[in-house]
Amino acid sequence: MMIVVISSMKGGVGKTETALNLAIAAKKTGRSVILLDLDIPYGGVAQALGQTKEISVTDWIKTNRSISTKALKSLVAVNEENGLHYIPAIASTSDLDRLDGQVVQRIINSLNTLYDIIIIDSGVDLSEPTKAALQISDKIIIVTTANHVSAQNNYRYKEDLVSLGIDRDKLLLFINMIPEQKTAGQIVKNIVTTFGETGSSTQTVAEVHYDEKVAQIREAHGFAYNNCPSFRSGIDQVLQKLGLANPIFSQEAKPSKTNAASPGVVGWLKGLIPWSR
Ligand SMILES: Nc1ncnc2c1ncn2[C@@H]1O[C@H](COP(=O)(O)OP(=O)(O)OP(=O)(O)O)[C@@H](O)[C@H]1O
Ligand SMILES: [Mg+2]
Q1: Which atom of ligand 1 is nearest to the CA of 208?
Q2: Whether residue 199 is found in the same domain as residue 117
Q3: What CATH number is associated with residue 62?
Q4: What is the pLDDT of residues 30-50, one digit of tens each?
Q5: Is residue 265's pLDDT more than 60?
Q6: Which atom in ligand 1 lies closest to the alpha carbon of residue 39?
Q7: What's the number of domains the chain is made of?
Q8: Whether 101 and 58 share a structural domain
Q9: Same domain, 92 and 40
Q10: Is the distance from the beta carbon of residue 13 to the nearest atom of ligand 1 less than 6 Å?
Q11: pTM of the full structure
Q12: What is one process in the GO biological process aspect for this record (predicted)?
């Protein structure tokens, strides 16, 4: 199981785009994936998918520990076109005061029993719900654009996360929307170097160029991963870094008991499965 938070201290940098495409890419590897929109209150996942919010985090706030697995599964939205499982952000601000850190922890723990991978699109804040998601996560992908304001805010953000007790090894940097201009190369270099300084080292996991097709595809509720090579390669680098790049066997395709009886086959298959639940 793996919990990945997509985060930033600057809005509009491509958090939702990254979260959506990472989710669809991870799903293609055969793993079960849920995309949780914790960009509270309004979020952007359901809108990006062009779907209405019939189910939302609000429904999960109301659940308790004794709820059955079947009931939990009924509180997940499924994208009709590609089968992506997701939970839109909160439906009404009147539910806001009920969403604290403990509730977020409970929601994530429940999802952990149902899915291999939880991808969380988080808010531009350090509220208790956001902090709870950051604390419980295995990896945090900080998304920045290649400009000074975004880079500086996110640099201060990652330093603050470390002071809050977040393990610095969990942090990865995703540089998005890099302009084609020559000067951008030097800015990106500076960002990579500054974030990678020893003592507070954060590795840059992907450098993605601005491509107007990304926004066009989003408008059409599609996935840049399927149509934009530069965005796809950025997401592939993230998958690689998370150890999720290689496909796993789906439940149905897993070796049968007859195969499992042969130690030779089992050993060979194990070698092919880099990660399993
Ligand atoms: N590499 C890119 N090239 C061009 N457009 C991009 C790229 N990445 C994201 N976008 C577009 O930029 C816009 C903002 O992206 P997105 O909504 O993912 O940002 P966000 O960080 O989630 O914003 P918010 O803070 O509002 O939640 C979207 O239209 C998206 O399609
Ligand atoms: Mg967003």
Answers
A1: 1
A2: yes
A3: 3.40.50.300
A4: 999 999 999 998 899 999 999
A5: no
A6: 27
A7: 2
A8: yes
A9: yes
A10: yes
A11: 0.90
A12: negative regulation of cell division
